[in-house]
Every structure is written in C-alpha cells, then in structure tokens.
Design goal:
The chain is mostly helical and 60 residues long. It has two helices and no strands. The chain has one domain. α1 runs antiparallel to α2.
Length: 60
C-alpha cells in the first residue's frame, strides 16, 4: 500500500510542525515529523494496522 498525502494533509503537517517549533523547540519538531513519517511507513507495510474511519468507508 502507498500512503498518499493530500495537499491539505501536507499543509496541516507543516502548520503543526511550525506550532511545535514555536512552543516546544526544534528538537521536538524534528521528533514529531519523524514519528509522523514513521507511522505512515508502518501503515504502508501493514495497511490493516489502523482503524477504518467510518466516514471514509465508501470513499475508496
């Protein structure tokens, strides 16, 4: 499976990272981004790992 990032998701990630940088510093921002990408990679290799969002069941 491939995780595809929507433009909205990328913008949200960027804004969240900027907020973390401002409130908690560079080290925490880097940690957050690494964890997000690590989780996305986990979902690529184990697509049944997470829960299905009920509102998105019929979307795909």
């Amino acid at each position: 499976m491939i995780v595809i990032w929507s433009e909205n998701a990328e913008n949200t990630l960027k804004k969240t990272a900027e907020y973390i940088l401002e409130k908690f510093g560079e080290k925490n921002k880097i940690f957050f981004i690494q964890e997000v990408y690590k989780t996305a990679k986990l979902l690529e290799t184990n697509p049944h790992l997470g829960q299905v969002e009920p509102l998105l069941v019929d979307f795909f």
